[in-house]
Each structure stands twice: as structure tokens, then as C-alpha cells.
Design goal:
mainly alpha
């Protein structure tokens, strides 16, 4: 149980570091209407890199790469839905729907980590 809890904490730290301190001005370009693919890919690449590092300590490199790819894809899709001016990104922080979208985004990321931890154990 301690091992599972430790992995969950590790992925929570990974999520915080990749989503906040390491998400610079360039990566915030993911909110643009055009030219968002590269900034979003860079952001998701950071998440995938950390997932790869954590996973390599526990499973073969083939599984670790697959888990990193899974994290990248889910993060890419969710963040684009959240950031797209045509989708959930159309809401302003003054609207309750903005906060629902942000909460949904964070829930999806955490559920992704739970799935990865379940695979790792």
C-alpha cells in the first residue's frame, strides 16, 4: 500500500512541476487559435518525459515508452479541448463554466495517472 501511495504522490509532484513551474510563456501558446500544436506538444512532452523517467524505474523501456506516449496523447487531447477557443477555452475565469472545465481537465490528468500507477503495479 505504501508503494502505491508513494507512486501517487510522485505523479502528483510530476503533474505540479510539469503543469506550473515548467510551463513557460512559449507553452502557453497552446491557448492560441492558430499555431498551438508545437507549444502544446512541448508541454505534453514534458509530462511524457517525467512519466517515462518514473516508469523506467519500474518496468522495461518498451512499457515505459508506451506509458509516456499514453500520457502525452491524453494530455494533448484534454489540454486542447480545455484551451481551444471553440471548445472549453471559450469561457472566461469570471464564468462558472471556466472552473468546471478546469476541474474536469485536472480530473482527467489525475485519472490518467491513476491508470498509469495501476499498470505499473
Amino acid at each position: 500500500m505504501l508503494f502505491i501511495f508513494s507512486l501517487l504522490i510522485l505523479f502528483q509532484l510530476k503533474h505540479f512541476i510539469a503543469d506550473y513551474p515548467l510551463q513557460g510563456a512559449y507553452m502557453l501558446g497552446k491557448f492560441k487559435g492558430h499555431g498551438w500544436v508545437a507549444p502544446l506538444s512541448a508541454h505534453c512532452g514534458v509530462h511524457a518525459f517525467f512519466t517515462l523517467c518514473i516508469s523506467l524505474a519500474l518496468v522495461s523501456w518498451e512499457y515505459a515508452i508506451a506509458l509516456a506516449y499514453f500520457d502525452f496523447v491524453v494530455h494533448f487531447i484534454m489540454d486542447r479541448v480545455k484551451a481551444s477557443p471553440r471548445l472549453l477555452g471559450r469561457y472566461a475565469p469570471t464564468e462558472s463554466k471556466f472552473w468546471y472545465a478546469l476541474g474536469f481537465d485536472q480530473m482527467v490528468h489525475h485519472l490518467t495517472h491513476y491508470a498509469i500507477v495501476a499498470i505499473l503495479i
